[in-house]
Write a structure and sequence with these properties.
By secondary structure, the chain is an alpha/beta fold. Helices cover 42% and strands 22% of the residues.
């Protein structure tokens, strides 16, 4: 899943990005409201973490503009302010949740996961089933033939992208875009490393290489 952090406190933004990347999310970071609005409008994100006090355009206006344009991406607002009026204003502009600084990182992650579950299934965690393969995206667990297969966060994220398009060819570029992040400039062959790891853990014939095009997840028999 792709997250966008719009936060002008650069140390905080980068710290959050590092932690959320370790959780298995692809994270982009911008530091002003206008760039945040542009990025959220032009790219598909699963959730936006949006500070209120931003240069260029404040978080209230960014949120209002996104909602006015019909963008229903979940928005978690962050602010150094505290008070019922601020919270009411944030929620009135269309934010889904509100967190006051300083906050616990554990609480932030819990709020993000709750919003993502709510968006995907209206309250329950989505489960993807491909043949005998079962991905519980809420618990981030994978089972094959009823037996759990331990995966790292990145392995799970790569498999999830293939499972969402089971039977179709998914390119390296598509996997990089959704599993890593917008600014990733490393070796695109990193995808091959994770596909190889998945084959070792789930079976060599599960993920087919389509030469020159990408990978296809086959339903295990």
């Amino acid at each position: 899943m792709r997250l966008l952090i719009v936060e002008d406190e650069k140390r905080l933004a980068l710290s959050l990005a590092k932690g959320l990347t370790a959780e298995g999310y692809a994270v982009d970071v911008v530091h002003d409201g206008l760039e945040g609005l542009h990025r959220a409008s032009e790219s598909p994100y699963d959730l936006v973490v949006l500070d209120i006090m931003l240069p260029g355009m404040n978080g209230y206006r960014v949120c209002s503009a996104l909602r006015a344009a019909g963008n229903d991406v979940p928005i978690l607002m962050l602010t150094a302010k505290d008070g019922e009026y601020d919270e009411a204003e944030g929620l009135d502009t269309g934010a889904d949740d509100y967190l006051t600084k300083p906050f616990s990182y554990v609480v932030l992650v819990a709020r993000i996961k709750a919003l993502l579950r709510r968006r995907n299934t209206g309250g329950g965690a989505p489960v993807i089933t491909v043949g005998e393969l079962r991905l519980d995206t809420g618990a981030r667990r994978v089972e094959r033939d009823g037996a759990e297969v331990p995966l790292t966060a990145k392995e799970f994220a790569v498999l999830e992208q293939l499972a969402l398009r089971a039977g179709e060819v998914v390119s390296k570029g598509q996997i990089l875009e959704h599993v890593w992040d917008f600014a990733y400039e490393g070796d695109p062959n990193i995808v091959e490393v994770y596909v190889s790891a998945l084959r070792r853990k789930l079976g060599a014939g599960l993920i087919r290489t389509v030469r020159g095009a990408g990978y296809r997840l086959e339903a295990p028999r």
